[in-house]
Sequence to fold (123 residues):
Amino acid sequence: QVQLVESGGGSVQAGGSLRLSCAISDSTYSRYCLAWFRQAPGAEREEVAVINKYGDTTYADSVKGRFTISKDNAKNTLYLLMNSLKPEDTAMYYCAAHSTNNGYCITSHFGYWGQGTQVTVSS
Fold:
């Protein structure tokens, strides 16, 4: 069973930065697809950024150029660096994982989830 634990959320003013971390319990996590999702009150969950086992990344259009997803295999940790934050980035942020043999990441396959960390951006 893979366990994910997020940290690093908080309150920040617009234009500020935060770095989220997600500690992953499975030592073989390097073979997983990893992602950050977010969900604002009353909104659907949104896939923010994905990184596959090769380190290839994809981003939602709303965060391109501002957010960076990365992972440290030695520390079993996933990161999301968020710069130039906007009030519309306010949400609960979740890290997620799914195993893959071919390296393809599929949104509907993410089955392991953390408990979430709140990000609040004030104007």
Remarks:
- DSSP finds no helices and eleven strands in the chain.
- Residues 11 and 37 are 18 Å apart (CA to CA).
